[in-house]
Amino acid sequence: MTKIIFMGTPDFSTPILKKLAESYDVIAVVTQPDKPVGRKKVMTPPPVKVAAEELNIPVYQPIKLTGSEELDQIIQLAPDLIVTAAYGQLLPERLLETPRLGCINVHASLLPQYRGGAPIHYAVINGEQQTGVSIMYMAKKLDAGDVISQRALPIQLNDTVGTVHDRLSVLGVDLLMETLPSIIAGTNERTKQDETRVSFASNITRQDEWVDFNRPAMEVHNQIRGLSPWPVAYADYEGKPMKLWRAELADGHGARGAIIHTDKEGIVVATKDGAVRLKEIQPSGKKRMAAASFAAGQQKDITGITFNE
Fold this sequence. Notes:
By secondary structure, the chain is an alpha/beta fold. About 25% of the residues lie in helices and about 25% in strands. The strands form three sheets. The chain has a seven-stranded mixed β-sheet. Strands 10, 11, 12, 13, 14 and 15 form a six-stranded antiparallel β-sheet that branches. The chain has a two-stranded antiparallel sheet with strand order 3-4.
């Protein structure tokens, strides 16, 4: 039976690992180290580690794969194939050259669009009408290898990065399982990426999370939904950061960033060319709540208050 090493870290990767283990001999899993999570900094394993332990598959967690003892141990396992999905580190050349069938990656975009660590986020933030999954051979250059197979997925107006993520994870499982037999048999196709169409999706920074209401309403809406439910967009409200979990396009005009009015559906904020209605927010130091409840609970009329002043 084909010996496979799986490399992945977040929730996106876990269904892929589980399905792979049903039909193939997954001899090891490589994932990122446990990390402190939350205010109490509780050491928490990545989702892929949890899944691997449930499947009784050995787990390796090198802080940095290149030059590590774990790398030598992984190479000594002599896998026939390495499958990665959102692992989070570049694979060293020694490892790329180890499996006889190569190293393949399940990437959450229609390559060559959105190479990098946050392809789903940027597809939504940039207002794309579709994204997809690519199964590709891994190369030394980030997400630049030949594409084996692809499948597209539509993005709806009110999709979030979370809803698109979940559908892409399922799509990734299906496409990988359909593609693997041809890879193992050596009959698969491979297509070089068009370098003139390359775009990148670097990891989200704190600056990327800040909402500027001086931009068009559609861009603001796309940014908020493209960061929900993680890491979540924010704007400054009366000098403190307020997380903006959910919004929608709305009618209205006013000074950019100003609250035009509140209603039972939320808080309407003016943008460059219109308005958005904030539906769910999280004031500094408080829990996530309906924007309408926040407005109703204030001891003053918040109309006219401007975000980011």
